[in-house]
UniProtKB/TrEMBL annotation:
EC number: 2.1.1.176
Protein name in the entry: 16S rRNA (cytosine(967)-C(5))-methyltransferase
PROSITE patterns to which the protein is assigned, alphabetical: SAM_MT_RSMB_NOP (PS51686)
GO function terms (MF aspect): RNA binding; rRNA (cytosine-C5-)-methyltransferase activity
Sequence similarity: Belongs to the class I-like SAM-binding methyltransferase superfamily. RsmB/NOP family.
Coiled-coil ranges per UniProt: none
Annotated localization: Cytoplasm
Residues where S-adenosyl-L-methionine binds: C259, S260, A261, P262, G263, G264, K265, D281, D307, D325
Active site: residue positions: C378
Length: 438
């Protein structure tokens, strides 16, 4: 069996992203299907994510280097050029390999004609890299590696923080774990990590969180297969502490996790409290990941595939608590999903905000009087966050917002906004709403 060409596989995976018709979500399965394993898989993922993270600069450089753009059917060749530029600019790959093996990968794609073009462009970049990078970086959006429209929105929303927000997005997020308190406490698990030679620190805000100094394969984590620990960013772990006032004193509370996949928050709530939880999601395949997570952790919930903007699935028994981790732009987690820089469009924010309106209004009817709805997004866009909740409160007479007495984030209307931090948490928004008794 022949050895797969890593760069050709990466180019094929990146081509749909460049065309705006795909994402990196299926990258693991793509690499598995291609037979790329072990260290080669780590290299392939570093290449694909790195290209997406630095895409604005790489595309600007390719525009300078090419006499004319590749045709649309040759997005895989464009991807090879970007892969070569990324290796030469950001990786320790020997230059001869970055040029020769990247150009040669065109043959594996059945497009040997492109080898000479790629070789010429990459060799020119080797000679003139400093001059060419300085040339394209005159554009601030290229220097900050984000679309101009996105930076404009952030300058308006976060005039003192927009540049730091972009810079945090350009760094890979740390690997953060959630310790299952049903198994052991955080200090005990930190000691187990030290014994395993893994350096880590407790997260400053999430009581069950641990951040590793260096990422590792989950199979190297003590107790992972037994359900002692899960991978989850610190910001996402704040859901359980925020719902503690509603759930800690109500054993057997009926809880709805309305957009539950892939199941991290679902599992955390079940680890922390005694609940009867319904995990709802419109995507059956993604809901399967919730089931897999619960099985690994030894937890139980009722899983339902349904559209949360409609009530055909509901038995009209009110829930004590509703968690709405709403579909959003993902602009707070770009560092973990850098293809968002290419795939997200300004119109998406309007469309997502309209979906959030429907979700809030529909799910509010399922909440019992006196109950709590926690609204969350991994967005930094006010239209999806503070503005969304302000509009909901204005049109919903029986809704009140709780003041969040916490030491993280910053006030954002009726909620709290976290911006991504280098070596820290992702960007997130939370608002806790209470339904007034009739």
């Amino acid at each position: 069996m022949s050895t797969p060409d890593i760069r050709a596989v990466c180019a094929s995976a990146l081509a749909p992203v460049l065309d705006g018709k795909g994402s990196l979500n299926a990258l693991d399965s793509t690499l598995e299907s291609a037979g790329i394993e072990g260290r080669d898989r780590g290299l392939a993922k570093a290449l694909c994510f790195g290209v997406c993270r630095t895409l604005p600069r790489l595309e600007a450089l390719s525009g300078v280097l090419l006499r004319q753009s590749f045709k649309r059917r040759d997005q895989d060749i464009q991807a090879l050029l970007l892969l070569g530029l990324y290796q030469l600019s950001y990786m320790r790959v020997p230059a001869h390999a970055a040029v020769g093996e990247t150009a040669g990968a065109a043959r594996a794609l059945g497009k040997g004609w492109a080898t000479r073009v790629l070789n010429g462009c990459l060799r020119r970049f080797q000679r003139d890299s400093q001059t060419l990078q300085a040339q394209v970086d005159r554009d601030p959006s290229i220097a900050l590696l984000h679309p101009e429209w996105m930076l404009t929105r952030w300058r308006e929303a976060w005039p003192d923080d927009w540049r730091g927000l972009a810079e945090a997005n350009n760094q890979p997020g740390p690997m953060t774990l959630r310790v299952n308190r049903r198994h052991e406490d955080r200090e005990t698990y930190l000691a187990r990590l030290r014994d395993a030679g893994l350096a880590a620190d407790p997260t400053p805000y999430a009581p069950d969180g641990v951040t590793l100094h260096e990422a590792c394969d989950v199979r190297a984590l003590p107790g992972f297969s037994e359900g002692t620990v899960s991978v989850q960013d610190e910001a996402a772990q704040l859901t359980a502490p925020l719902l503690e006032p509603a759930l800690a004193t109500t054993p057997g509370a009926r809880v709805l996790d309305a957009c539950s996949a892939p199941g991290g928050k679902t599992a955390h709530l079940l680890e922390a409290f005694d609940l009867k939880l319904t995990a709802l999601d419109s995507d059956a395949e993604r809901l399967g990941r919730v089931d897999a997570t619960l099985t690994r952790l030894g937890l139980e919930a009722t899983t339902v595939t349904a559209d949360a903007t409609r009530l055909g699935w509901w038995d009209e028994r009110a829930f004590d608590t509703v968690l709405l981790d709403a579909p959003c732009s993902g602009t707070g987690v770009i560092r973990r999903h850098p293809d968002i820089k290419r795939l997200r469009r300004p119109r998406d924010i309007r469309e997502l905000a309209a979906l959030q309106v429907r979700l809030l209004d529909t799910l509010w009817t399922t909440l019992a009087p006196g109950g709590t709805l926690l609204y969350a997004t991994c967005s930094v866009m006010p239209e999806e966050n503070a503005d969304q909740i302000a509009a909901f409160l204005a049109r919903t007479p029986d809704a009140r917002a709780d003041e969040l007495d916490v030491d993280w984030g910053r006030p954002a209307g009726a909620g709290r906004q976290l911006l991504p931090r280098i070596d820290g948490h992702d960007g997130f928004f939370y608002a806790r709403l209470r339904k007034q008794p009739a």
